[in-house]
């Protein structure tokens, strides 16, 4: 089987009906395809069995997480080329797929394919290449299929635990000293990640017009960076809530070390259970992606009810591009199975609409798409530099998940496939007064 790479390339190009954009190196040492890096390295025949039993993205991801295949050369370039298999062929979003076919329809399609002699020969070749054996088990890092209603309190807590309770040492390696897991803001080309995260936190505080003595609620407080910044630099009293027990323990330790336990409270609490309003301001930074479209209006109304009249919400959230037919939207399998179970992205227009339906007045929207691409590339560099530690405190598969997820996300932001936006909304008082300065420049100074 000294020509495995050529046979794999033939199979791929027949299945895709287009040329394959990467050079391929197979387990037998053979190579085929465009010259030069990046190279798709197929280390084991098992990778093909994964693809045969689960064609498409999920099969590829399982092979990547298990170490059955790898990329040699620039990972971003490789992912950009591979994503072009979707985008350059007219699909609006690789996660937007048709409604799954019924079993009968699938069988009819399969019979049609097998009647084509050329396709039948290719399938036989694929089975020969893949070798005998049952479908390989998914890597242990994969979340199994969930049942029941999405975005219940119990299911949301489990989803958060999968993503965040993988060890604070791991996140220290990836995020650096700031421990901020959301888009940074880079004012200058030479701004460091730490400086950029400081700039983002300060931007949020200035948009919220925080003043000494006010009450701030930080929804999805992570490791406590936002509440610490707001209390230290703006003199507020802050409450941070998270569903992650590991995040809460870490945040409480930071608060105690800063001597601020009398001004900051960290709770393991669902946003739906907060009942100690009113607050003067609410920050929600990188949390609303977990809410889900069916629950979003409830989320917006809950936060509205927790604010005093004139109070402000800063909602910082990743957004997807709108589709021509919203009924075709499907959550990306890789993200759902390995990264953010039950996570959903909505267009920014939908987010603003939900906030206004809840009673908010949307006063400002700032897009930070390019900044998130830079942030993700910085996190990938941190992960690669601390690879041995990241593997030791989690697993090789978990580290590979995060490297792929962050690099692919960086490409998506760079190519304008997804964005990230800060929306400033106000619970405007009954008399129409918002307590905002007259110009945007004034309330950012």
Automatic annotation (TrEMBL):
All residue ranges annotated as the Polyketide synthase-like methyltransferase domain in the record: 170-411
Pfam families referenced in this protein's UniProt entry, alphabetically: CMAS
Molecular function per GO: methyltransferase activity
Entry keywords, A to Z: Lipid metabolism, Methyltransferase, S-adenosyl-L-methionine, Transferase
GO biological process: methylation
Coiled coil: none
UniProt-listed Enzyme Commission number(s): 2.1.1.-
Record's keyword annotation contains RNA-binding: no
The protein's enzyme class: transferase
Segment forming the signal sequence: none
Region (Disordered): 131-151
PANTHER family linked to this entry: CYCLOPROPANE-FATTY-ACYL-PHOSPHOLIPID SYNTHASE (PTHR43667)
Homology family: Belongs to the CFA/CMAS family.
Stated name of the protein: Class I SAM-dependent methyltransferase
Originating species: Streptomyces polygonati
């Amino acid at each position: 089987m000294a020509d495995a790479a050529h046979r794999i390339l033939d199979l791929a190009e027949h299945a895709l009906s287009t040329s394959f954009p990467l050079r391929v190196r197979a387990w037998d040492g053979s190579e085929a395809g465009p010259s030069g890096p990046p190279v798709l390295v197929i280390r084991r025949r098992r990778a093909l069995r994964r693809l045969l039993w689960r064609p498409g993205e999920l099969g590829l991801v399982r092979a990547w997480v298990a170490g059955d295949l790898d990329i040699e050369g620039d990972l971003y370039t490789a992912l950009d080329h591979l994503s072009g298999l979707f985008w350059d062929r007219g699909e609006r979003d690789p996660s937007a797929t048709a409604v799954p076919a019924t079993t009968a329809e699938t069988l009819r399609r399969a019979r049609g394919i097998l009647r084509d002699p050329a396709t039948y020969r290719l399938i036989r070749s694929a089975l020969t290449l893949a070798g005998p054996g049952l479908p390989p088990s998914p890597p242990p890092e994969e979340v199994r299929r969930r049942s029941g209603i999405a975005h219940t309190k119990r299911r949301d807590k489990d989803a958060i635990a999968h993503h965040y309770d993988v060890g604070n040492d791991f996140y220290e390696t990836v995020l650096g000293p700031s421990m901020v897991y959301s888009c940074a803001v880079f004012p200058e080309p030479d701004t460091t990640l730490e400086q950029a995260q400081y700039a983002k936190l300060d931007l949020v505080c200035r948009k919220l017009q925080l003043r000494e003595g006010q009450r701030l609620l930080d929804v999805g407080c992570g490791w406590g960076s936002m509440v610490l910044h707001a209390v230290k630099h703006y003199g507020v009293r802050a409450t941070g809530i998270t569903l992650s027990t590991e995040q809460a323990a870490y945040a409480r330790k930071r608060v105690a070390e800063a001597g601020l336990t009398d001004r900051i409270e960290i709770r393991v609490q669902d946003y739906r259970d907060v009942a100690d309003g009113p607050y003067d301001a609410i920050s929600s930074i990188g949390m609303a992606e977990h809410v889900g479209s069916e629950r979003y209006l409830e989320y917006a109304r809950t936060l509205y009810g927790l604010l005093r009249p004139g109070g402000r919400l800063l909602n910082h959230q990743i957004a997807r591009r709108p589709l021509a037919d919203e009924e075709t939207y499907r959550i990306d399998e890789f993200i759902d199975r390995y990264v953010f179970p039950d996570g959903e992205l909505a267009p920014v227009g939908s987010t603003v609409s939900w906030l206004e339906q809840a009673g908010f007045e949307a006063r400002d929207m700032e897009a930070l798409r390019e900044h998130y691409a830079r942030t993700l590339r910085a996190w990938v560099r941190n992960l690669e530099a601390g690879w041995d530690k990241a593997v030791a405190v989690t697993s090789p598969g978990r580290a590979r998940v995060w490297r792929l997820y962050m690099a692919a996300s960086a490409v998506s932001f760079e190519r304008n496939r997804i964005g990230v936006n800060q929306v400033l909304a106000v619970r405007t008082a009954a008399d129409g007064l918002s307590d905002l300065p007259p110009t945007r420049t004034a309330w950012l100074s």
